Amino acid sequence: xxxxxxxEKKHLLRYHLPRAREQxxxxxxxxxxxxxxxxxxxxxxxxxxxxxxxxxxxxxxxDVYLRRVQQKRGRPNLAMIQGIIFHAVVADVIVAxxxxxxxxxxxxxxxxxxxxxxxxxxxxxxxxxxxxxxxLDDTLAKAEILATFEKTRVLARLQEILTKQPYIGEDSLxxxxxxxxxxxxxxxxxxxxxxxxxxxxxxxWEPMVIDIxxxxxxxxxxxxxxxxxxxxxxxxxxxxxxxxxxxxxxxxDRLIVKKDIHIISDELRQWFIEARDExxxxxxxxxxxxxxxCYEECPYFHIxxxx
Length: 307
Prior knowledge:
Layout: H1 6-23, H2 50-54, H3 62-68, H4 78-104, H5 109-117, H6 125-128, H7 133-164, H8 170-177, E1 180-186, E2 197-203, E3 208-213, H9 222-236, E4 242-251, E5 254-263, H10 266-284, H11 301-305
Parallel strand pairs: 3-4
Antiparallel strand pairs: 1-2, 2-3, 4-5
Helix pairs in contact: 4-5, 4-7, 9-10
């Protein structure tokens, strides 16, 4: 799901990259300026997960107050559980493919192909008790569709590279065919965030944060890539100007994939910082923001509205 089609590459190279370089970013909104306003955390004793800042499914931010101040635990809904599983499926295929290349060597291409094709599905034991039989069957079927799609894409990329590069080695093949790091661990402490953050994927050839969603497109989803871009700038001091949200949708036995490539603009950076400061304020000053127009699948619905 992380790999771009030829059309998406052309759109990226001809449209987004030139605009990202021309548009620029205000210097005070680069992550490496985390030690001064407006990036400097106002509430230094409050450490938030990035998803707590970026998610706006709860319209008032009361979910953060309940979790951090009232120490309440939510009930994960089906979409949340499936999201965790589907993310794990994609990462598992990518890592298994890299492992097969390094283990078998380029000279044993057929063995690499067989290992990737026969890579077993991830076990769902950890989540099975939280799902009904119908939900588990549905999740298994979708996970298989997703794994098959990802394996096919990986094998196509391997074949494409190998037909062009007769003298390539294992490390170079991994770098060219699978130029991403999945579940990249990051320390968000400089920005008042958790020291144990994890991006879905990071692309090196043009610094870009990628996040997968199995949800309809929402404007605040871009806050996730923006937050990770700020953290990476704070840690490594190079600009991260682009983000991409990959939307996966299951239609019968098909997987539909759409990508929202976007510039990590001043507006998004400012929005993320304001959301961080506002949610940190709720926690630091123990302010209950009250209920909003909630959705019934919210993990905290039973607390806000009763059983």
